[in-house]
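Quick one: structure for this chain?
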Amino acid sequence: SGSSSILNPFGWMSAQPLRIAHEVEPFIDTAHAPPGVDIFAMPQFLIIGVQKCGTSALYFALGFHPNISTSAFTKEPFYLSMPDRDDIVQSYAMHVSTMERKRFHQKYVTSCFNLTKMRPDTITMEASTTYFESDTAFELIGDYLLNGKVIKLILILREPISRAYSHWQHEQRNSKKAGKTKSFEEAIEPEWNIIRMCTKLDEVKSDHQLPEPFEHFDYEDFYRCIEHSVSNAKLSLGREPPGYLLQGLYYGRLVKWLKRYPNRVHVVLYDDFRAHPVHVLEDIVQFLDLPEFDFTVALEQIEHEYQQGSRYEKYNHAIVRDIAKEFSVHNDLLGVLLGREIPWNQKLATSNYLIPV
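Got it. Here's what it folds into:
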C-alpha cells in the first residue's frame, strides 16, 4: 500500500512464527458455528500490541467477563501478519471481491478460533502483538475481514526503554539456550545509532520542544530515514533489527491506525493497567459496549501474568539517560495525539533512570 513505508518502515515483523497447527491441518469439526453465532462478525475486537506491554495480562483478565470468550486456540495466532498474507494484499489491493473476502475471513476464523466455545451472547478476541507494527495486518483488518468497518482495536503501550529492556530479557532467555548472549547495550546499539542519526536529520531535535503548529510536524522524514537505514542494515547483516528500541516509536504508527480506524482504537497505558487494573478494564468494557462487570475477580490472574514476565533485576546505565533524552519528544508527541499526559519522561527522571519504571 502507499502508506506502508511510513506505517512500518522497520521491517522487523517479516520474521514471523511458524503457522499454528490448526492452520497447517484445518479443523473439520469446527467448520460450522453453533446456532446464532456469526463467524463473519468474529473476532469482534483485537488486542494489536505492543509486545512486552502487558498484553497477556490484559487478554486473560478480559476473559473473566461473561460476555467475552477466550475462544482463540492461542492468544497470539499471528495470522494476519504472517509473511504470505502480504502476497494477498499485493495481489488484490483494493479490488478484492466479496467472495474472496468471505473465504479469507472464514479461513481465519476457523483456523484461529474454537467455535464450539462461542455462544450467541459472547464476543471474542485474539491478541497478536505483531499487528500494530505490521503493514499487512493493518490492510487485512480493514480490507479483508467482513467486519473490518466495525471491528474494535485495543492497544497497550509502555515506556519505550523499559519495554526494550523487557524485550531484551525475553530474547536473552532464548539466547542462553542457544549459547549466544549479548549485553543490553550491545543488543540495542545498532538501533540506537539509527535513531540518533535520523533524529539529526529531522526538524524536531531532542530539546523537548514541540513543533508549532503541531499539525505541520513532518514526522515522515524521520520514518523515511529509519526505513532506509534499516534496509541498509539488513543488506549488510543479512537480517533485520529485532526492534528493541524501534518498536517504542509509537507515535508515527499510531497516527496511521487512528486515521484508518477512527473511534475504534482504544489506547491503554501500561502504567494505568498496573496501578488501576479494574478501572482500565471497566473502561474497555464500556468501549466494547458490554454490560458492567466486577473485575476484582481477575486481580490474582493479572498479578500472576505480570510475575511470569518480571523475573529480572532493574538496570541502571548512562545509556538509559541518553536514550530517554532522545525519546522525550516522541513521548510528548504521543501525549498530544492522545490528548492526555504521558508520565514516562517524568517517571524516568524521578527514578534516576533506573528501568523498568
